[in-house]
Specification:
By secondary structure, the chain is of the alpha/beta class. The protein has 2 domains: about 190 residues, Glycogen Phosphorylase B (Rossmann fold); about 160 residues, 3-Layer(aba) Sandwich (Rossmann fold), CATH 3.40.50.2000. The protein has 18 helices and 13 strands. The strands form 2 sheets. Strands 3-2-1-4-5-6-7 form a 7-stranded parallel beta sheet. The chain has a 6-stranded parallel beta sheet with strand order 10-9-8-11-12-13, sandwiched between helices. The longest helix is centred in the first third of the chain and has 18 residues. Keywords: Membrane, Transmembrane, Transmembrane helix.
């Protein structure tokens, strides 16, 4: 089959979910074409990548590109362009928007495809009819923000989609439930395929013991939904109890200044380290030299970093945000704490610290075994091959 995957940009080195999926499909003989809005971030050398027309800049530049693209589509792909124009008319879109849709999706219209798969729900707007116009089936993935947050700001944004999509991919049961919250009508088949990791790369190794006995770590973009401010408040409570610790936060993002100021106000400057963005192999080293992984997000689709930490034998404490309570089985493979409750997080951290070594080893072993069996790349790739049949 020929499968089109619509993404904001080519998969970056850290976006293993997409790269592993693409490699698995290609290994089974399928052709994958990646459609992107820009090609500045990352590359994927083994896959055909087509970039959308760049409709930004001066009015003259945008006008010239638009006219050229529209004429090209009408000359070489008239039937598909016409179908898209008419399908959009049936949905009540105005003439100007319909013309924009033909121009903006010209790079997709030009390709013969069996499936057109939008990698995020938010990529589908004004493209709900493209798959039908080119004679392909349509699939959409929902991963977290696109169904947990975006519809709150844009009520009813997916109502056009529900009647047109053939299959929906979700990464957790909680994400599945959110579809119904936002108007899903039950027509399309929903298939859950969770994230997966390289369990051969992420595995427990002999490592240097942390210089601080209670050494904690989080790998996350510095974004409000990661709940890092609540995590810092929990550590401030631990400090008041006289508990010695060090907490390392790996990642970069727009909340850095706010979080750094919070560290100052909470008098945690000697207890917290921000590393910024570091290479993947260095992240593995940091995990090796930590005791406990924390992911106290307030919105989270699933989180690969938690899977990686479990695979490396780290004790994990997470929030109950969406997929995290499926990623971690409470009191079996780690611990799940309600969101927005730094006092409860502090209490759980203290209890975990006080557990005897045998209890800790049992939890860590359970987590490692479950990740190896359920969240390996081979299983994920097979499920995606089956997804399109």
């Amino acid at each position: 089959m020929r499968i089109g995957l619509v993404l904001p940009s080519p998969p970056a080195y850290s976006e293993t979910f997409f790269t592993n999926k693409i490699k698995g499909l290609e290994a089974h003989g399928h052709t994958v074409v990646v459609f992107v809005n820009n090609s500045k971030k990352g590359t994927f050398n083994t896959t055909k990548c087509k970039v959308a027309p760049k409709l930004s800049g001066s009015l003259l530049t945008v006008g010239s590109i638009s006219i050229f693209t529209l004429v090209y589509s009408l000359v070489f792909h008239f039937n598909k362009s016409k179908r898209l124009f008419l399908l959009d008319r049936e949905d009540g879109l105005g003439v100007i928007q319909r013309i924009k849709n033909v121009i903006g999706n010209s790079h997709i219209i030009a390709e013969p495809l069996d499936w057109l798969h939008f990698g995020f729900g938010t990529m589908v707007f004004n493209r709900e009819n493209v798959a039908k116009a080119i004679g392909a089936k349509m699939a959409v993935s929902f991963r977290g923000f696109d169904i947990g947050v975006y519809p709150l700001k844009n009520p009813g944004c997916y109502l056009r989609l529900w009647d047109k999509v053939n299959k929906i991919h979700v990464i957790s049961n909680d994400i599945r439930a959110l579809l119904y919250t936002h108007g899903y009508n039950g027509k399309a088949e929903i298939i859950k395929i969770t994230p997966a990791i390289d369990t051969f790369y992420f595995k427990k190794e002999d490592c240097q013991l942390p210089s601080v006995k209670n050494s904690f770590i989080t790998v996350a973009r510095l974004h409000w939904k990661k709940g890092l401010e609540y995590t810092l408040e929990a550590f401030a409570l631990l400090k008041k109890e006289g508990i010695d610790f060090h907490y390392t936060i790996i990642g970069e993002g727009e909340e850095y200044e706010r979080l750094k100021f919070a560290v100052y106000q909470l008098d945690l400057l000697d207890y917290i380290t921000f590393t910024g963005k570091i290479k993947h192999e260095k992240i593995k080293d940091e995990l090796n030299n930590s005791n406990i992984y924390i992911q106290y997000s307030i919105q989270e689709g699933f989180c690969n970093a938690v899977l990686e930490a479990q695979a490396m034998g780290k004790l994990c404490i997470v929030s109950d945000a969406e997929g995290l309570s499926e990623n971690i089985l409470d009191n079996e493979t780690g611990w799940v704490v309600p969101k927005y409750a730094p006092n409860m997080l502090a209490e759980r951290i203290q209890k975990v610290i006080e557990l005897d070594s045998e209890h800790k080893k049992r939890i860590a072993h359970n987590a490692q075994r479950r990740v190896r069996e359920k969240f390996n790349i081979e299983n994920q790739q097979k499920k995606f091959v089956d997804f399109y049949t």
